[in-house]
Design goal:
By secondary structure, the protein is mostly helical. The chain has a domain of 122 residues. The chain contains 3 helices and 4 strands, in the order H-H-H-E-E-E-E. Strands 1-2 form a two-stranded antiparallel sheet. Strands 3-4 form a two-stranded antiparallel ribbon. It is elongated, with a radius of gyration of 33 Å. The N and C termini lie far apart (72 Å).
Length: 188
């Protein structure tokens, strides 16, 4: 007898018919689960959920950190591009966008969203940002103002938390939380 058939015939032999004509397998399927079986299933599911919860929280934090790094890179690159355009006289000097006493940096982050006139062109403008990326680690204090970044001007100390107000040289997160690498988000 082939091996597969032997297994099938053995399985058929183990299911016996009862006096009412149903098999034991059919009877247990109609009977349902006992309370003990239900409690065991609930205990197993709760242990699995308890193990999965920290992993999901860690992945949410990792995604927020990646967003923070990306947003910092976007703003810092845009600030450098604005300065390069001022140094290369791409932006109109007549409009007062580029001022040497401000180090040719913008006076605010909002200025990067405005259409700025180009030098030598009558109707050409340049916008550096469509919107200011927000800091994912800090809650918005005012929904109308998406700028929740800490600002540093060129004359400020590198670790300053008070903005000098002259220009926007750098941005930082105002969150005091600690990242997965052990450093504060405000030092990134």
């Amino acid at each position: 007898m082939p091996q597969g058939r032997w297994l099938f015939s053995k399985a058929v032999k183990t299911t016996r018919e009862t006096s009412d004509g149903t098999t034991a397998l059919q009877r247990s399927a109609t009977r349902g689960l006992t309370l003990v079986e239900l409690l065991v299933v609930i205990a197993i599911l709760s242990v699995l959920a308890a193990a999965a919860m920290p992993l999901s929280q860690m992945s949410v934090k990792r995604v927020k950190e990646a967003e923070l790094r990306r947003n910092l890179r976007i703003i810092r690159t845009t600030l450098d591009e604005f300065r390069k355009d001022c140094d290369a006289n791409v932006l109109s000097k007549l409009e007062g966008y580029c001022q040497a006493e401000r180090g040719n940096y913008p006076e605010s982050l909002e200025q990067l969203m405005e259409p700025l006139k180009l030098a030598g062109a009558v109707d050409k403008v340049k916008k550096y940002l469509r919107r200011i990326p927000r800091d994912p680690m800090k809650e918005l204090e005012d929904p109308d103002n998406p700028n929740n970044w800490g600002l540093r001007s060129y004359s400020d100390e590198p670790d300053s938390t008070q903005w000098g107000g002259d220009n926007v040289y750098d941005v930082y997160s105002q969150s005091e939380a600690i990242g997965l690498d052990g450093s504060k988000y405000s030092t990134w």
